[in-house]
Write a structure and sequence with these properties.
Layout: E1 76-81, H1 82-88, H2 93-97, E2 104-105, E3 116-118, E4 121-122, E5 127-131, E6 152-159, H3 163-166, E7 173-179, E8 187-195, E9 199-210, E10 214-225, E11 234-248, E12 251-263, E13 270-271, E14 293-308, E15 313-336, E16 342-368, E17 371-388, E18 395-399, H4 408-411, E19 420-441, E20 444-461, E21 471-488, E22 493-504, H5 514-517, E23 522-535, E24 540-557, E25 565-582, E26 588-603, E27 605-606, E28 610-611, E29 623-633, E30 636-645, E31 648-649, E32 657-658, E33 661-673, E34 676-683, E35 691-695, E36 698-701, E37 706-714
Parallel strand pairs: 5-7
Antiparallel strand pairs: 1-6, 2-3, 3-4, 6-7, 8-9, 8-37, 9-10, 10-11, 11-12, 12-14, 13-36, 14-15, 15-16, 16-17, 16-18, 17-19, 19-20, 20-21, 21-22, 22-23, 23-24, 24-25, 25-26, 26-29, 27-28, 29-30, 30-33, 31-32, 33-34, 34-37, 35-36
């Protein structure tokens, strides 16, 4: 994978791009009539430790802007609250998300670590990541924020096309991190964690009233880890802050300012062994340079307003500014050398991304009779600059065991002055959308939505202005829509079916080169049906879904001239997803999910004219499963979890396998009192050596056994 970059400047300069007429309109969400759907306002439902839940009763805007609860939504949506995240010891979002149904991770330093696979579609062009419904546009295949779970109330995952809500790049799934909100009730919390391999973390959070009409919420986190392998040090931190002014129940303003700085693990894996197996003797080795760098810095500013105009109309507006600076200086490719016990290193990459994104979302909510209709307009301007040392030369030979890492510039054949801005892009995005949730009968609800996206991108070669790879005002447009029907069989049981259409780009829109810029969006179509049920007496919840997704116009090769890339390829996936959270007795609680997936290319020709028809897409497992069991006795709780990911392939050729794996995790919690909890967390109990993903010709190994002691204090 190759990365890219863009420059940054003072955050407020880009606000002039948003017309003043957009600024700070808003609408708080009124209550529904007796027969109407749930309120649009943020409602947090927290289960007690003895209650099993999938979050079916939690209203959310992840699956629909109308604010339906998961039980009413004609789609698969799953929520994980902060209590569950803490209970399982999931400090990173990738850990929490891969506990959900059918989601597997495909991380690498090049994609920022937030790359997932869902329903047969993988990567940042098919599985979107957002915070409170706001996405930063993907540049050069990279998403790196949000990364840690601290400061979030819950995480929503909607599976299948969600282009009506969040636009292009969501055919596989959408992940939405929901922040903790200001409250007038005083809240303070502290988290302290110490673990093996020098792992340390500290989080603080506070909220409360400021005078008669204001409130706030602040969350901060810092961590440092010496790492489980050579050169494995990582560290970072973040500050999240929200200031709220609410003069009355009909008007609310939020001002949000965040900052984060991460220096993640500079690990690119180990070479494939003979017959492409994992050489366990190298599990703690790293082959990067001693002075390697991966650095992500983020600034996020938002202004939100909600205004309840009258009994039937709400208006809300959100203005935001996002800035991202990313740096990579690494040796990224490793192969076993021709001499025994040696590794040949290449791909000396030095890359910087500088990105600024300014956007606005204006939305109106109309409630008439049994309709709850949403109409909205989103606009964004993205400026991106890419700096690199292309053609990234350099090579070296090191010992496979206890290598002398050396320094980056010692064996790089690219001079330092070759690290310079190569190209930049300027992009504008506009989208208009509408949804209507119509409860036309006590037992029937119809959800329909449509969205039209317009994008325009210009690219300039900074070294040779007007070069062959430059283009201006390239337009890529797409339409997404869906129709879903929910039947409330009883108050606690709902059946649903939906047909949805979405789209994914063939490459990141804001960083596409001239070749990719001429392609239009791929088209995805999904049929899904399912059942959702809340069991009586607090016993629990369960869901089941069947689906089929077809995607066409993927990039393939011309059957006549295999050197020519064209659109026209096809792929499909179909499967069954099951999830349940059950509390059979007061002391026992179980949570689990299972996915059986069939994913295939119907038409695909790759380099050399080789057909991949019938093959499975790379890094897509056929089976995934999760299981957790919890036992509560007085002030103590023991938990044991199992995570299974089936066999995957490293490429569409299906010649090299990543073996299936099962990992066991556990925790033991002592609830000293209602405000103080101590946890002992164990990750990978059996010390399983497994590959979490692949990169180039390397396996990226998963974390070995790790223990952590955590103290959670609330005041």
């Amino acid at each position: 994978m190759r990365h890219q970059s863009f420059p940054l400047s003072f955050p407020f300069k880009s606000l002039k791009l948003i017309p003043s007429t957009l600024l700070l309109l808003g609408g708080a969400c009124p209550l529904w009539a007796q027969t109407a759907l749930p309120t649009l306002g943020e409602v947090v439902v927290t289960a007690s430790p003895e209650t099993a839940t999938l979050g079916l009763s939690t209203p959310t805007q992840t699956g629909s802007r109308t604010g339906l609860a998961a039980k009413e939504l004609p789609a698969s949506l799953e929520s994980i609250d902060s209590q569950t995240v803490a209970e399982r010891g999931d400090t990173q979002i990738i850990d929490a998300i891969t506990r959900t149904t059918g989601l597997s991770v495909r991380p690498s330093p090049g994609n920022g670590g937030l790359s997932f696979s869902s329903r047969g579609f993988s990567g940042v062009q098919s599985v979107a990541v957002a915070e409170d419904g706001v996405r930063i546009q993907t540049a050069s295949g990279t998403i790196n924020y949000p990364s840690s779970t601290w400061g979030y109330e819950r995480f929503d995952v909607v599976r299948g096309p969600a282009s009506v809500v969040l636009g292009s790049g969501t055919v596989g799934a959408t992940i939405n991190a929901i922040r903790k909100q200001p409250t007038r009730e005083s809240q303070q919390e502290i988290m302290l964690g110490l673990g093996t391999d020098g792992y340390k973390r500290m989080g603080v959070g506070a909220g409360g009233a400021l005078g008669a009409i204001a409130s706030y919420r602040v969350d901060a986190l810092g961590f440092h880890n010496e790492g489980w392998h050579d050169l494995g040090e990582s560290r970072g931190g973040k500050l999240m802050s929200t200031f709220r002014i609410q003069p009355n129940s009909d008007l609310k303003f939020d001002l949000i300012a965040d900052y984060s700085l991460d220096r993640p693990d500079r690990y690119y894996g180990i070479p494939w062994g003979a017959n492409q197996h994992i050489d366990k003797s190298l599990k703690k080795e790293s082959y990067n340079a001693r002075d390697a760098v991966i650095r992500y810095e983020e600034i996020r500013l938002r202004a939100k307003a909600d205004w309840r105009v009258n009994d039937w109309l709400n208006v809300n507006n959100e203005l935001y500014y996002l800035e991202s600076k990313r740096t990579w200086k690494n040796i990224e490719a490793y192969n076993f050398g021709t001499l025994p016990n040696t590794v040949a290193r290449s791909d000396y990459l030095y890359i910087r991304h500088d990105l600024e994104q300014t956007g606005n979302r204006l939305e109106g909510i109309v409630e008439v009779a049994n309709h709850r209709a949403v109409f909205g307009w989103e606009t964004a301007r993205i400026d991106f600059k890419h700096t690199n040392n292309s053609p990234w030369g350099g090579n070296s030979i090191v010992s496979a065991t206890n290598p002398d890492h050396g320094y980056y510039w010692t064996s790089s054949t690219t001079p330092l002055n070759a690290v310079e801005p190569k190209w930049e892009t300027a992009s504008t995005f506009n989208a208009f959308y509408a949804e209507d949730a119509w409860k036309f009968h006590d037992r029937w609800q119809l959800l329909a939505g449509i969205r039209r996206d317009f994008s325009k991108v210009s690219r300039d070669n900074l070294l040779s202005p007007g070069g062959a790879d430059d283009y201006s005002d390239r337009k890529v447009n797409g339409t997404a829509w869906r129709v879903g029907l929910t039947h409330f069989l009883t108050r606690d049981t709902s059946l649903y079916a939906q047909y949805s259409a979405g789209h994914d780009p063939v490459a990141d829109l804001i960083t596409a080169n001239l070749t990719n810029a001429r392609f239009h969006l791929t088209k995805g179509r999904q049929v899904e049906a399912g059942i959702k049920q809340t069991l009586p007496g607090g016993l629990g919840e369960w869901t089941a879904a069947v689906f089929r997704i077809e995607k066409k116009d993927i990039i393939t090769r011309d059957p006549v001239n295999s050197a020519l890339s064209v659109q026209g390829g096809k792929q499909h996936s179909q499967g069954v997803e099951l999830a349940a959270a059950i509390s059979p007795t007061k002391n026992w609680r179980f949570e689990g999910n299972y996915t059986l997936l069939q994913a295939r290319f119907d038409e695909l020709i790759e380099a050399g004219g080789v057909s991949r028809d019938g093959n499975r897409p790379q890094l897509v497992p056929r089976h995934t499963a999760n299981l957790w069991g919890h036992y509560r006795l007085a002030d103590w709780q023991g938990s044991l979890g199992l995570r299974y990911v089936g066999k995957r392939f490293t490429s569409n050729a299906n010649t090299t396998e990543i073996p299936a794996y099962t990992v066991a995790d556990a925790s033991l919690a002592w609830h000293y009192d209602r405000r103080t909890t101590f946890r002992l967390i164990a990750r990978n109990l059996t010390n399983k050596v497994y590959a979490a993903s692949s990169y180039n010709s390397q396996f990226i190994l998963g974390e070995p056994r790790r223990f952590e002691l955590v103290a959670e204090l609330k005041f």
